[in-house]
Amino acid sequence: MGPRHFYKKKKGFSSNMSKENLDNLLASFYDADQVDGVKEDIRIGDEIIASGETLVPDAAVISGIKNDISARLKSRRDRRMNTISMRTAVAAMIAIVAFIGIRTMIHQGDSPIRTDIASGFFWGEDAVASSIANELNEINYTILSSSLDDDETESVDAVDALEYEIMVADASFWR
Amino acid sequence: MYNGYRLNMADNNELNGIVIRCQNGDSTAYDELVDMFGKSLYGYFYRLSGNSEISNDLLSELFMKLVVKIGSYKGGSFKKWVYTIASNIFYDYLRYRYRQKKLLDGKADTIGESALGIDASSDLRDELEHYLAKLDTDTAEILMLRFFGQLSFKELAEVRSEPIGTTLSKVHRGLKKMRKVMEGESN
Predict the structure, then answer these.
(1) d(CA B108, CA B119)
(2) In chain A, domain spans
(3) Is A57 in Cβ contact with B168 (below 8 Å)?
(4) Which sign does the torsion angle of CA A119, A120, A126, A127 carry?
(5) Chain centroid to CA A3: how far?
(6) Could you report the per-residue pLDDT of A48-106, keeping only the tens digit for each?
(7) What is the DSSP string of A68-107?
(8) Residue among B36, B37, B52, B64 with most chain A CBs within 10 A, to mutate
(9) Distance (Å, rounded) from C-alpha A34 to C-alpha A56?
(10) How many Å apart are CA B59 and CA B35, to the nearest integer?
(11) CA-based diameter of chain A, in Å?
């Protein structure tokens, strides 16, 4: 197979970089009398590369990659859900304990906030309790939202990155 | 289609939509991305490593890395972003080979001096492989980036963090050398 084979075959390889104005680019870096020669070198070189065998991965490899990605996304989702559930449970527990503690203090009459609450006497005790419950909910929400903020993504990403490193180190490819 | 590796994508909007879905953890979007880029990335790795098993491993490594890193993609040419990762993975592989060779032989050429992975273990035996083997690694890699990634000179220069004039000159010299080798052998 001689060079002429490439000169005739498969014209227009460079059209894949069509957004680029090769003439202008070459004019910026080469003398005017060199531009045509350089363009021709590039065109023929491109044709040589394009003449190579088309290399296609096995369908099994592609499908394996898709499965690996899917499994990885699933495990990431599960991990996130576990983290959220755990933090929610902890926050709820703190809120309940705090609520019970405050309620007990109110009933015993030794609460430092008793006076403040007493000012709400006319609301009745249920109204006071409900206002405390609302406050606690807000605290709970604040704890939750701060713990699920960007740090969550970063820590998960850090775990992902670590997992990835382990996976690469473990891959049979490196053996 | 003329170039068998041309990315199968309608337009940038479609690709951006897929990338956003990937960032949101949609596994079907990743499937689309694998279909879109898998063939050309495999071609890139295979041409440079000369070995299909290694190429499969590198391809798989790339997509796993992509899953981890996709959150850090902030816009611009996604193709360029993907091929930057591919290029880094390829050079990591070369460094690994270099270290392994050094351990086994007690000596090794500098990275880039040897002709890629194209050696006795290569299972690619076409003429292009033969021509590429005559080039230094750096030049061969840039040519493969350009061909498989369909990258413009500007994008190539950005992937390689070098001035566009340097990239242009390397591509020109590489292609010219391949042409000379081919013509020399056909005469």
Answers:
(1) 15
(2) 3-50, 59-174
(3) no
(4) negative
(5) 49
(6) 899 888 889 999 999 999 999 999 999 888 888 888 888 888 999 999 999 888 888 88
(7) HHHHHHHHHHHHHHHHHHHHHHHHHHHHHHHHHHHHHHHH
(8) B64
(9) 38
(10) 12
(11) 102
pLDDT at B1: 32
Q: Residue A10: CA atoms inside 13 Å, Cβ hemisphere, count? A: 19
- pLDDT digit string (tens) for B62-71? 999 999 999 9
B17 vs A122, B10, B13, B24, B123, CA distance in Å? Answer: 58, 11, 6, 11, 38
Q: How far is A137 from chain B (nearest CA, A)?
A: 29
DSSP per-residue string spanning A25-51:
HHHHHS-HHHHHHHHHHHHHHHHHHHT
Domains of chain B with CATH codes: 12-186 (1.10.1740.10)
Distance from C-alpha of B120 to C-alpha of B68, rounded to nearest angstrom: 35
Which residues from chain A sit within 8 angstroms of residue B172, using beta carbons?
38, 41-42
